[in-house]
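Input sequence (284 aa), recorded before submission:
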Amino acid sequence: MLQTAQTNDYELVRRTIEFVSGNWLDHPSLDEIAGNVGASPDSVQRSFSRWAGLTPKSFMQAITVDRARQLLQDSATVLDTAYEVGLSGAGRLHDLFVTHEGMPPGVYRAKGAGLTITWGCHASPFGTAVVLTTLHGLAGLAFADEGGETAAFEDMARRWPNAEYVRDDKATAAMAKRIFDRDEWRPDQPLRIVMIGTDFEVRVWETLLRIPLGAATTYSDVADTIGKSKAVRAVGTAVGKNPISFVVPCHRVLGKSGGLCGYHWGLTRKKAILGWEAGALGTA
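Predicted structure, token format:
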């Protein structure tokens, strides 16, 4: 089960990221960071170590623009390479193994009519996770800070307004554990997901699944991969509409210059996820 301590650590990590992101030119020390986030230096150090397996300094280095540019050095080939390896190949040893299918187009056009979606709220390393499932698998994953759970669910429900929604935290608990507990990331038990969107959106989301942990790509490379090199803006829109955040790793798509660009659940959370993944790989 996801440790409560790790879940609580995210709030301190979030505040630290926000402070350092706004003051990075001053190269704040650990003491200065701790003072501004309302914690002791030891608490900050321990929280980062529990949460990401990294020191605060190593974590912040993992989410710099320079680090992003390093990740993008191979962006032109990472999608092709990942395709050759496969979604469950050895090259994805540290990643979440996924099997997916697309819903029939009629389900999307009917805005979810006839579909029952069970949802629940669960602790995660990145705040509260709002998990939405169907009989076919995971259909949605959103994030919320404390008090924002209802708004996050409503944001997701607007995508498929004609579906029937049933809240059942107990029913979605196992899915949440499968997503965030790295001990559950096993190739012999891939996580089942279902993509509900337009044909174009599903093609973009399928391409995102090729980006392995510790790698990144650009919007233009995604467009090239699906044979729509002139549709970079449309690709960006589809990436932003990805309903299964974290699992379908839209956070690994960056601007050509290494800029993080946007993220539906906030740039602070995008930085947190990228840093957490660097800790998982031990590459910071």
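Checked by second reader. Residues 4-23 form the longest helix (20 residues).
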